Fold this protein.
Amino acid sequence: MPYITASIILQLMQVVVPSLEKLRKEGEVGQQKITQYTRYLTVALAFGQSIGYVFLFRSFSAAGGQDVVDDFSFARVFLIVMTLTAGCVMIMWFGELITQRGIGNGISLMIFASIVAGLPNGITAWWTNPDQIFKVMMPFLALGIIAAIVYIQEGQRRIPVQYAKRVVGRRMSGGGSTYLPLRVNMAGVIPVIFAASLMAFPPTVGELSQADWARDFSAFFSPNGAAYLVGESILIVLFTYFYTAVTFNPVEQADNLKKYGGFIPGVRPGRPTAEFLDRILARLTFPGALYLAAVAAVPTILINQTGANFFFGGTSILIVVGVALDTMKQLEAQLMMRNYEGFLK
């Protein structure tokens, strides 16, 4: 989590901080600098989060009534904090090694593996469930949710782009037509992670504070309550619009098209193109935001209504399907680059 949070913070700061935006435009060298800053921020976040975990562990009690952290001295706290921080750094190193020598994003693949590792327990919980209706309907429900996630994840609006022919020396180059793909869900799973992190704040306040107002505040936003679901859904919609606006800049896309001699048929280059892309993106983002909110809320609603344990939440399924699709595309690209047949053929 500290590495993912640091990556998201650096990605958002590239739009706000001019020096980071300049590094982003420098290509591979600038990306290496940004990666180095991400590592430093990961260590800082891991250190701070480890201190918070120590105080959280202090509030726990073992089965026999003994405290989990029995010796709350500086040496013991320092040892726990440094151990947790070193473990986070080691996992970050493993992820970067997988990224360099494997296929796909290493951290994403490690998260994928940790979720899939719980699949046998989920199958066991489904098979031993006494509710026969749930046992019959669960496979169809799971397949339907996965099919819907794949359908939305792969959905895109293709904007036609025409390139004008140019004369370079004595030769004519360029020309032709292509398209600019605008995905329905351009934000991915990031808004769900943001919203879940913010909605985890009230229960944390209730755990750390013994005041009555803190306990009431935590109980009002309990994870299975209606207030939690409504708040999480609203935050997911807001963060989807915010993150999409950060990652896709219509003005920059319009300038790039104009620079390379491209234009959208029926739309003038420059500012009209940027307004056209912004209007289409706003229309696409709304169903994508509703889709993310539904994926995050539907499993909790089903658990509250049926009382059955689905074991996997909507965010876990979204991560698993998204990483599987991205890994398959990268395998397909590697095979095509080596002149092999397609991955699915």
Residues 1-101 form one domain. The chain has a mean pLDDT of 81. The CA atoms of residues 102 and 249 lie 31 Å apart.
